[in-house]
Amino acid sequence: MEQRKRLALVAHDNCKPDLIEWAEYNWQTLARHELTTTGTTGALIEKAIRAKNGGKVIENMPIRKLKSGPLGGDQQLGALIAEEKIDAIFFFWDPMHAQPHDVDVKALLRICVLYNVVSACNRATADFVISSPLFSAAYDRKVPDFSAYTGRYNREN
After folding, report:
1. Domains defined for the chain, CATH in brackets
2. CA 46 from centroid of its chain's CA atoms
3. DSSP strand E in 12-68: where?
4. pTM score, two decimals?
5. What residues act catalytically?
6. Complete DSSP assignment for 85-105
7. Is 75 exposed, middle or buried (0-12, 13-18, 19+ CB in 10 A)?
8. Would you call 63 helix, strand, or coil by DSSP?
9. Tens of pLDDT, residues 38-89
């Protein structure tokens, strides 16, 4: 991982206010990194940060917005993780309400673990991650070697 991280910000509806408040508080740190969000979350974060800055667009803080999570954004994000294009995800998910796309959420969290992506699923963890000295430094993230798995049918017996 480079010093400039590729971050994903995602939140379920009941958790959006918390993620937005967290992003507003940490916007100067987040602005030093590449941001990718699911659609609705990204639009809300962008609006909140603009409002916090007197309506001004933050030029050096573009937010790449994917589709809304239930409309395919979770899968788009999972693909970016599998392509090793995301270094950390801040996914404030709602453990109290079943989501119509729960299987997508589980798949997204699974792919994060599979590719050793930093994952913060609540505000406390997000605070620890963003305040870590490693957050602003280069980091040698170990992505597992899947060649034994991918080549399992190519071997001679």
Report:
1. 6-150 (3.40.50.1380)
2. 15
3. 34-37, 63-65
4. 0.89
5. 74
6. --SEEEEE--TTS--TTHHHH
7. middle
8. strand
9. 999 999 998 998 888 777 666 667 899 999 988 999 999 999 999 999 999 9
